[in-house]
Each structure stands twice: as structure tokens, then as C-alpha cells.
Request: fold
Amino acid sequence: MEKHRYLVRIRCKQCGERFILKGQLRRGKVETGFKRCLCNNSGEFEITSEKL
Ligand SMILES: [Zn+2]
Reply:
């Protein structure tokens, strides 16, 4: 089974912290396991992903 890997860039809209993670496409959604920012924000993010 082919795995679809993505490079995911996440920017917190509250504190501006940036994260770069690797994700996998599952059921049409890119999953990274990312839960929340260091500032405790868990909902307000700017997310972009590119296929690797
Ligand atoms: Zn933050």
C-alpha cells in the first residue's frame, strides 16, 4: 500500500510560532499528530501542506 507523505507547515495565529511536521494522508485528511501550540492554542492555525 502506497503511503502519501506530506510536509506540513503550521503557524500559530496566537503567538506566531511555526512548526514543520511530516504528515500522512488518511481518509482525505493530512494527519500529523499535532495537537496544540506551546501557548496552549489548539484551534487557530494557518496550515499549508505539500506533497513529498
Ligand atoms: Zn502559539
